[in-house]
Amino acid sequence: MPKNKHEDGPLPRMREKEYQHELRRLHGELVAMQEWVKRAGAKVCVVLEGRDTAGKGGVIKAITERVSPRVFRVVALPAPTDRERSQLFLQRYVPHLPGAGDVVLFDRSWYNRAGVERVLGYCTPEQTQQFLRSVPEVERAMVDSGVILLKYWLEVSPEEQTRRLEGRINDPRKVWKLSDLDLKSYSRWYDYSRARDEMFRTTDTAWAPWFVAHTDDKKRGRLNIISHLLSSVPYEPLERHDVKLPKREKPNGYREPALPLHRIPEPF
To answer: Shortest CA distance to 198 belongs to which of 89, 139, 106, 118?
Structure first.
């Protein structure tokens, strides 16, 4: 899958100062989008899929760190229970779809069936094909109901995936990110490629297309996804009002009481 490049070659990795400058600007736009979603009663659903280590969590954090969790909701479902396995496959996702005034971000989604479940044998080939046949019409129904549905696939090179997984092995901050499933998936790069390709062929539709983001440079990838998200939602600029803090009331004899409070240690 070719990467976006300058005419003279690959883009250099973005510097932190430039990244923070652009992210601050985009955060302001996300707040404007949030306020429009609330006023308009809009329904926005963002699906984030991709290779292991491609940076889905970082993208979600970048999108949500300056907005209200009452509007922006992250859905990361655990493995299904026995009861959920007996249901229609998409049934467990339906309660989490956005209502009026919601932006829902799926950290992996119903497309698990077309990816990890298919590659690692957690579902049958017949179940995969049934899913690939039915999901376009389910997504058509979502869009027809007024949902703004955006599907992003985060793509990372095999070399960068190796570098990131190796970086997790001895880093105590990242050890929770390295699971047995990641190791199994790592060895099945081309099986995942084939599964991804068929998923694109059958579920990249006019009403719910896939958008591919290359994330070898995580900073550029995050900014590109946020920019595209903003361009896909017809929000209005946020009106700025002059705000002046009111005067604080006088103490009228109030004094701090001598209560036996339990204070935390202050080693810093």
So the answer is: 118
What residue ranges of the chain have pLDDT lower than 70? 1-9
Residue 9 pLDDT: 60
pTM above 0.85, yes or no: yes
CA distance 209 to 153: 11
Q: How far apart are CA 37 and CA 132, in angstroms?
A: 31
CA distance 208 to 191: 24
Residues paired with residue 50 on neighbouring β-strands, in sequence order: 154
Report d(CA 67, CA 35) in Å as an integer: 10
User: What's the Cα-to-Cα distance from 9 to each of 3, 155, 182, 214, rounded to whole Å?
Assistant: 10, 19, 31, 15
Per DSSP, the three-state class of 147 is strand
Contact 50, 155 (CB under 8 A): yes
**How far apart, in whole angstroms, are the C-alpha atoms of residue 222 and residue 130?**
33
Map tokens 């790069």 to a residue: 189
Long-range pairs of 174-182 with CB within 8 A, sequence gap ≥ 24: 181/116, 181/120, 182/52, 182/53
Strand pairing class (72-75; 43-50): unpaired
For residue 3 the two structure tokens come to: 């990467």
Can you read off the two tokens belonging to residue 70?
Answer: 């009452």
> Would you state the pLDDT for residue 177?
79
Q: In the chain, what is the straight-line distance between the N-terminal and C-terminal CA atoms, in Å?
A: 49
Q: Is the backbone of residue 80 left (phi > 0), alpha (psi -120 to 50) or beta?
A: beta
Residue 6 pairs in a beta bridge with: 9
Distance CA 168, CA 18 (A): 26
Structure confidence by residue, pLDDT tens digits, 167-182: 888 888 888 878 877 7
